[in-house]
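Hi! If you just cloned this repository, the fastest way to understand the data is to look at a raw example. We've pasted two of them here, unedited. The first protein comes first, obviously.
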Amino acid sequence: MLDQTTVNTIMTQFRRAYGAADADGLRAILTGDFVWHMHYGAAADQTPTGRVLSGVDAMMEELQWRRKHWSNVEYDNLVERPANDLVLQTFTTKGLDQSGAPFHVNVVDLYAVRDEKIYRKDTYWKQMSFR
């Protein structure tokens, strides 16, 4: 079972590597069999479960795609809590997509942890409207 101190350590390391798109940093905190279940599918047969990325290299491709196609991205309201062998992370993000259209979403990420490394990331997005 994870405690808050362990969650803080794991997630700080992950957020630094993720935010910097640091492949070596990600390899240090993710297991070799890491998978990321994304909030959307790339093809009709992948919905509603979403696209699945396997490994650090696939995560790096997604991070580079986002850097190229999204702008003015902001994150807010970050909360991370232990839940047995999971980390529950919630936050809000907004920015502009590749067409310049704004996006604003509430996000829930569930991180499964084994031996103090992340082996799965499940992402859920709730689209928010602009007023």
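Ok, and the second one:
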Amino acid sequence: MAYILALETSTEHASVALLRGQQLSTRDSAGVQVHSQTVLALLQDLLLEADITLAQCDALAFGAGPGSFTGVRTACGLAQGLAFGANVPVVPVVSLLAMAEAAHAAGAGTDIVAVLDARMGEVYWAQYRYLDEWHTVSAPQLSKAADVKPHGKVAVCGNGLTAYAEEFIHLGNAKLYADVMPHAEHVARLAATAVRNGEIVHARDAQPLYLRNKVALTVKERQAGVRP
């Protein structure tokens, strides 16, 4: 029975999870401004409740992004520091895939597009297909909402649907799951599969997934009402 400790901070909602076989425990904190301070306490609470140490876990998983630049960087840094100290391997999990996992669990089917609000009039998105395991149809990318072009009949999840509702009219009758967001529960479940498949990395090799180099607006963009 694998023990997986996971954290997800790619959005303003921080979450942690401990998966022990089929037993799952989670902690959440919404509207977090300093994820690093909050997440450490949440992780410690989970471990104390389970009466185990991090060193007893098979892996430490984290939501690798894309998402908030600070949040993704924080998740990776925390995972690296904790994993080094406890000498456990790390599993980076793409946050968009974690969203697809959540939508799939909610009954969205096997072909899913995850769309996360990236601000600045753009979204992070990817398309996945579940056939015994997840397969990437369209790799994570950054684009305008109107440029999200799914392949075939899909369900779509994520807050990009709400942030750019008019631009997503082209989705037609696709099933929509706008409330699905990255969460440590699904990071942990995906990481458990990765551990079984030997898809782990040393803490020093863990990397966040950045899709945008630009993290600030110009004066002209701010005056035009573009969201940072």
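That's it. A detail worth noticing about the second one: The longest strand covers residues 133-144.
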